[in-house]
Amino acid sequence: MHMQRRGTYSVCMRMHGALVCGGVLPLVFACSSGVVEVDSGSGSASAPTSASAGETAGTSGSATGGDSETDGTESSGISGTSGTSGTDESGSSPGVDLALTSIELAPGSPRVGDEVWISASIKNHGADDLELPVRLGFAIDGVPRAELAREILSLGAGQEVEMAAALPWTPEESGVVEVAAVVDADAMIDEADEADNFMAVEVTVGGGAAQLCRTIDSWAESAPVVDGERGSHPLPSLAHDGWFYVHTQRGDGGDRILYAAKPDADGVLGPWQVASSDHGGGPHGFTAVDVAGDVLHFRNGHIARYKLSEGVMDGDVELLEDDVETAFGGRKYVWDSAVYVEISETQRFLIHLGGFSFAGYTYRPDVFRSAVPVEPAFAETGLEHPSSRPGKAAVFAPEGAGLAYLYTGAGGGDGLWRGTVDGAGEISGWDSLGDLPQGTDNGRGDLFIAGRSLFVIRGAAVFRSNLGDEGALSEWVPQASLPTPQIDVSWGDGHTEGAAYGLIGDHVHVMGPKRVYTARLGASACDR
Q1: In 3D, which of 501, 448, 457, 506 has the Cα closest to residue 478?
Q2: Does 10 have pLDDT greater than 80?
């Protein structure tokens, strides 16, 4: 069979017992600096120093090789731990005739966030040496990946070489993924059999988004949310159902407007719309959190639920407590901290970490817990926050571990601690994790987790630490800084502002002094 197109490659494969040719795969990779030259006498290849072709392992999926028709017979790809070709090796073809004979991945059973090295074996079945440079291209789920491509400068007749991709591939999602390779990706040579230039294998990627480590490389700005007469901090901001909501008020605590916006195609928020002309919070800082689809806040003994839909709040908040004197054991919190914990679909809890109580007019760092859906009164855990002024908090639940790790800081301070939440919602702690890295300006900002990475904002500085299965931190690594310090303090006594960030898809949004800053959360190998 002879099928060739300049700039494209016609794929032939067996589907449900029939030979199908078509489904043209665009091959518009940019040229890569990864070059392999094979001596016709040795059959050896030089691969990138970052990976050795001999260090690859088989995949856990099945292979689809390019079928061929010879003398009325057909051969197809073989299922196995690596992709293997069905090429007939009984004799040489005239001229140069390249064929992919296998594709292998290392590790063979990758997980989200792993660095996966892809290698392909190529054989020249022809009677002539390859003397014209050709390119080995790779595609993931049908999308060409130019950065993985390699170049073969020569390959002797009858010789075979195994080549690693120029760079590792990092899966960002779990599930079945097709990894494909094509030799002579630009159709530079005529061959007796073009169909065996293509091969694909399927590999099952384990782990979900929680297994992926993340990075922040740059920030974009939304249009301003507030003007000179009004602000947002110390009030909270949060993400809910694809929208980002920002509480605002005038400097005297009046005119409490709740704004909302959705991300555009680039992830940046806008335009802003009024979600409510009176959100009912303030003037003190407080916490608002999305709890399994319900947005709640806790002020002055209340447990209040927002009724939000498509960026609009329907009327006033709904009060869930039976009595403000019993919702938190008589404490009436503002300047507080709370976090949602989901270990599994049946193990979900809301942990309230304490704050300033109007009852007694002092800080009360008592830790409370409620099962989800949230109950009319929280239960006392008998545990106190490790800081006299509870700070921001974030939760990491390793996949399949049956527990979660709760990270929390000191209000207006530098300390960081870790507690453990078991499947019954019982909290053990606290393990001191030392001080957070020093930042800029007032050092204030949010603490949040994306995938397996813990981020902290300290003024305008942003840092990341990757998390191990047992909750251990890696070293703190600087990320792209915010254009301005996140928090502009307009209140006294060092009280802690409400959390003001939200995750929507693969972007994080943080409320700054006047506008929201947005960053794409890039995929990263977990260097823990």
Answers
A1: 457
A2: no
Please give, one letter per residue, the 3-state secondary structure of 251-268: CCCCCCCEEEECECCCCC
Mean pLDDT of the chain: 84
**In this structure, what is the dihedral angle of CA atoms 314, 315, 321, 322, given to the nearest 10 degrees?**
-130
Does residue 8 carry a pLDDT above 80? no
Q: What are phi and psi of 123, to 5 degrees?
A: -125, 140
Question: Per-residue confidence at 112, pLDDT binned at 50, 70, 90?
Answer: confident
Other residues' Cβ atoms within 10 Å of the Cβ of residue 206? 16
∠ Cα 170 176 177 (to 5°): 50
In degrees rounded to 5, what are phi and psi of residue 41? -90, -25
Cα–Cα distance measured from residue 161 to residue 163, given in angstroms and rounded to the nearest whole number: 6
pLDDT at 287 over 80: yes
Contact 420, 442 (CB under 8 A): no
Cα–Cα distance for residue pair 261/275, rounded to 1 Å: 9
Instruction: Tell me what pLDDT residue 525 has.
Output: 73
Q: In the 3-class helix/strand/coil scheme, how is 260-322 assigned residue by residue?
A: EECECCCCCECCCEEEECCCCCCCCCCCEEEECCEEEECCCCCCEEECEECCEECCCCEECCC
- Comparing CA positions, the residue from 35, 330, 23 lying closest to residue 155 is 35
Closest CA to 246 of 264, 232, 256: 232
Q: Residue 442: pLDDT above 90?
A: yes
Structure-derived torsion over alpha carbons of residues 355, 239, 448, 406, reported in degrees to the nearest 10: 60
- Tell me which DSSP letter residue 53 carries: G
pLDDT above 90 coverage of the chain, percent: 70
Q: What is the pLDDT of residues 394-426, one digit of tens each?
A: 999 998 899 999 999 999 899 999 999 999 999
pLDDT > 80? residue 292 = yes
Count how many residues are written for the chain: 528
Instruction: Let me know if 393 is exposed, middle or buried by CB neighbors in 10 A (0-12, 13-18, 19+).
Output: buried
Q: Quick one: how far is CA 56 from the chain centroid? A: 26
Mean pLDDT of 288-294: 96
Q: What is the pLDDT of residue 471?
A: 95
pLDDT at 19 over 50: no
Contact 34, 46 (CB under 8 A): no
**Which residues lie across from 189 on neighbouring strands?**
none
Cβ atoms of residues 37 and 150 within 8 Å = no
Backbone angles phi, psi at 323, to 5 degrees: -155, 130
pLDDT at 260 over 50: yes
What single DSSP character describes residue 225? Answer: S
Q: Is the CB of residue 253 less than 8 Å from the CB of residue 283?
A: yes
Q: Measure Cα distances from 286 to 206, 211, 300, 317, 471 in Å.
A: 39, 31, 10, 15, 28
Q: Is the peptide bond between 478 and the residue preceding it cis, with omega within 30 degrees of 0?
A: no
